[in-house]
Write a structure and sequence with these properties.
With about 250 residues, this protein is α/β, with parallel strands linked by helices. The protein has one domain: Rossmann fold (3-Layer(aba) Sandwich), CATH 3.40.50. Helix content is about 45%, strand content about 15%. The protein is built from seven helices and nine strands; from the N terminus they run E-H-E-H-E-H-E-H-E-H-E-E-H-E-H-E. The strands form two sheets. It has a seven-stranded parallel beta sheet with strand order 3-2-1-4-5-6-9, sandwiched between helices. Strand 7, helix 6 and strand 8 form a beta-alpha-beta unit. Helix 1 packs across helix 7 and helix 4 packs parallel to helix 5. The two termini are about 35 Å apart.
Length: about 250
């Protein structure tokens, strides 16, 4: 199994993509840490499901937009399952708002969750990765940022920031065998109606795709796992779109 003896923290893993990534890592032999914030029960269920396939699993709960909470979560997780080798940030706050009605407080909340949280999560795990000479970090963005959707200037700004953060961290820590990449999913088919964006016809979106479907969770999950695998040593600083061909950059 590819991830035996490795420990992975997946932020935003109460459901959907984050949960799928945790379970895939668990099946590949990793120790896993499921993170949640508002959906505490979901994060704990993810850890329970991971333990059921034989993984050493734990849960951490906290706000990734708060650097002190992230540091505390990483310390707690390290005590429970060991030093963190892999970080995948799946947290995503994606409200739709009238741009003229966005308050400074709401703007900062979106930026804190989507961009600050990714940076401070990486900052918390990087010292241990440097010490051990191994690390894999994947920041999850979203292909909407390449199309400029309406009603989401705060979301697009925060997600675009992940692309620059990926390059900066990749260049900074490459000599320590720490690889940092960004995965940018297209419209995801999750089977969870609460995850779907209002007003979007997912069936029609799939029909307009070159592959005839919207993006499957498993496709994004497998890309995350490939980029994090110990044998993967040649890809860093990249943003890789997994979108069923709906956009071709």
């Amino acid at each position: 199994m590819r991830f035996t003896s490795k420990t992975a923290l997946v932020t935003g893993s109460s459901r959907n993509l984050g949960r799928d990534v945790v379970l895939a890592l668990a099946r590949e032999g990793a120790n896993v840490i499921a993170h949640g914030f508002q959906d505490v029960a979901g994060a704990r269920e993810t850890a329970t499901l991971a333990a059921a396939v034989g993984a050493k699993a734990t849960t951490v709960i906290g706000d990734v937009g708060d650097a002190q909470e992230i540091a505390a979560m990483v310390e707690q997780a390290t005590r429970a399952v060991g030093p963190i080798d892999i970080l995948i940030t799946c947290v995503g706050f994606r409200p739709h708002d009238d741009p003229l009605a966005i308050t400074p407080e709401h703007w900062r909340r979106v930026m804190a969750t989507n961009l600050d949280g990714a940076f401070f999560s990486a900052q918390a795990v990087l010292p241990g990765m440097i010490e051990r000479g191994f690390g894999r970090i994947v920041l999850v963005a979203g292909d909407g940022l390449f199309g400029g959707p309406t009603g989401q200037p705060h979301v697009m700004a925060s997600k675009s920031g992940l692309l620059g953060l990926t390059k900066a961290l990749a260049k900074e820590y490459a000599t320590h065998n720490i690889l940092v990449n960004c995965v940018s999913p297209g419209t995801l088919h999750t089977g969870d109606s609460s995850y779907r964006e209002p007003g979007r016809d997912y069936e029609q979106l799939g029909k307009r795709s070159p592959t005839g479907k919207v993006t499957e969770l498993r496709d994004v999950t497998q890309m995350c796992l490939y980029l994090c695998a110990p044998e993967q040593t040649g890809i860093t600083g990249q943003t890789i779109s997994v979108n069923s061909g709906t956009q071709m950059h």
